[in-house]
Amino acid sequence: MVVGRLDIMPTASRGRQPIISVGELRIGGEEKRAISEVLGSGRISEGEKTLQFEQEWATYIGTKYSVALNSGTSALIAGLLALRYHPDIPIEPGSRIITTPLTYIATSNACVLAGFEPVYVDIDEKSFCITPENIVEFLESVDDPSGYSAILPVHLMGYPCDMDAINKIAREHDFRVIEDSAQAHGSIYKNGVRTGSLSDFSAFSFYIAHNVQAGELGAVNTNDIEIFRLIKKIKANGRICDCRVCTRKTTGCPKMKGNNDESDVDPRFTHELIGYNFKTMEFQTVLASVQLKKIDRIIKKRQENVRYLNDGLESVSDVLQLPRFDRRVSYLAYPLVIRDRKKISRKKIRIALEKKGIETRPLFGCIPTQQPAYSHLRQEYRDRLPVAEYVGSNGFYIGCHQYLDQEDLDYVISAFKEIIR
Fold first, then answer.
1. Three-state SS for 78?
2. Which of 153, 93, 148, 95 lies closest to 122, judged by CA?
3. Which helix (H) or strand (E) is 188 found in, with range?
4. What is the pTM of this model?
5. pLDDT at 63 over 60
């Protein structure tokens, strides 16, 4: 979702003006050994290391199954296609999915590419999540809700959506629920339950600036064996294989048992669905496994950095909405929203920060009204999403990652105070 930096040098050593990046990946000895092990194994396409990561990630999130894919976008597309193919409760192509207007565009793109129509409700101004109240209000305004099939909340910046209320609405309307947890690695919903374990399936991204960093890698987590099996097929061009561990060379392929003809069928090249090549590689999954061992420290350091920045920037909180601090949140970044546009514009503050070596990113934009790819929806959603539009125009974020030390944070605080006088 964001462009991070691959580095082995500490931030403070880069000359007189530090570079405060949105995200940073530092390759240490453990990561190098893991990559070397993959190279030495003679197999770089997904295999035992990928299976190991899938099992570790499923255990960490609290689901029965996890499937690794080559990106978070692929994870969303494959999961949504699995709902179309589902043998028990399939959802019809062309049906509508209620989702958020303020997030990285991959969420909406996945809906469209899987054959569904994203429909948007407004967000909470502090958590950036769609709210149950807005979902209910929207459904009450719809003449025929039968054309809707699912709710897809996004835990943006690590903030958990109200999943109890969302799941209640879904049960009342017989909807599926999908969690986009790409930015919420390890966020706690409540009572120790992590986001990504509260829906039919969840999608994760392990892009370089995320809390578990592997470059291009995604995963789908689910408790539904049929979704798990379908994604195994979809990610491999729809081939018939769906076993958790391949038994072709040991006990034989269960898909081929009872096949007594002379056709010499190979399950790896027999396809029963139309799918994609969404497979990943061992390099990414071993990096993710190494990162997962450190995740508690990563989350804690990011939380400490958010709290330190909040304390230091309290004096400018009349101009900037500071992020809500919550020890349940695994922070992707440090999101800010301009409160008073008369005092300073987002463009001005971002340019000033970048000149001081502090990377920034806009907070994605309101998809149906501010993203050119969805300009055909602009008239339909005019004045319907005031909070998302405001945050999309006035929100931005900077880094809070685990490699920032107190000197870096003090530099950021000083820079903001100098810009906002």
1. helix
2. 153
3. strand 188-190
4. 0.92
5. yes
